[in-house]
Amino acid sequence: MLDLQTLTAGARVTVFGSGNQRGVLFDPVKDIPSLAGKVILITGGAGDLGKQVAIELARHNPARIYIADLPRADDGDSVVRAITRDALSDSDQHAPPTPIRYLAVDLSSFESIKRAAAAFCAAEDRLDIAVLNAGIMRVRPGTTAEGYEVAFGINYLGHALLTRLLLPKLLHTAALPRGADVRVVAVSSEGHAMAPRGGILFDKLKGPCEDITYYQRYGQSKVAIIGFARELAARCPQIKTVAVHPGRIITGMAHGLRKESLLFRVTAPLSPLFCVPAAIGVRNHLWAATGPNVETGKYYEPVGVPDKETAIARDPTLSRRLWEWTEKEFENAIEV
């Protein structure tokens, strides 16, 4: 059952979503600097937000962009073509298109993550920007291949493992003479406020968690992302690591949730009043990945507004416990 705290937070987040019209003024066309020579990886890059992030970054001449998303029958060719086409539509048509690579990965499977990380590391000698954008919004309980609660397993744990396996590339790039501005942008949500009391129910992370609500399962996965960003920033200060909330955006993922959530259906008529298209919703991603004055270890709401997380998400004891729990799970499950 929902406790009063979670019910109140759920109603606030659903009806009064964080806006996208305050904070730092950031125009991707003018404010993203040249990305020449940089290698970028975006998880969930085939979805609405991830695709738009790739399009905007591709217009600024990076060396390569990797779209890390679920395996596809066409090996991602249609996604690559669409991003390349849209990136060129508002830029210099005579400039060579940024090379886009598709990297198949299922974040619900440690084995798939290991294969994807190995493929990337074999192909590249650097990684400048990692945007951990993929995620799920679903109501029905379920588990990952290794038996973790599915929202926590995909939204947080899969990204934590992928980052762990790519960390040598990130650190190597940060040590290069011209590679000091290495960034990891982890996409959280103001929905972290719907997490259960204590932030994360560590004793329930294995199994489908059928005895707690979707909102709590989703919320704790987003609390974990904030804690992960803070801990990675503290442990690897060479890398600028932040968590971001993109604001209120109607994407395909949200449309799917509307079919299963009564609260989403009831409030759907109000969504045009406070929702923005993906092209605006990705500005917090893009600012965090490329903009000035980004402080490592912070959680930012759009655009560039820090310190809006809940007290439990800000708790350093919780983030340290999460890091230690995660390390133990990786030791027990895989060789790293």
Automatic annotation (TrEMBL):
InterPro entries: NAD(P)-bd_dom_sf (IPR036291), Sc_DH/Rdtase_CS (IPR020904), SDR_fam (IPR002347). The keyword Metal-binding does not apply. Keywords: NADP, Oxidoreductase. Coiled coil: none annotated. The keyword Oxidoreductase applies. GO terms for molecular function: oxidoreductase activity. Gene3D superfamilies: NAD(P)-binding Rossmann-like Domain. Belongs to the short-chain dehydrogenases/reductases (SDR) family. This is NAD(P)-binding protein.
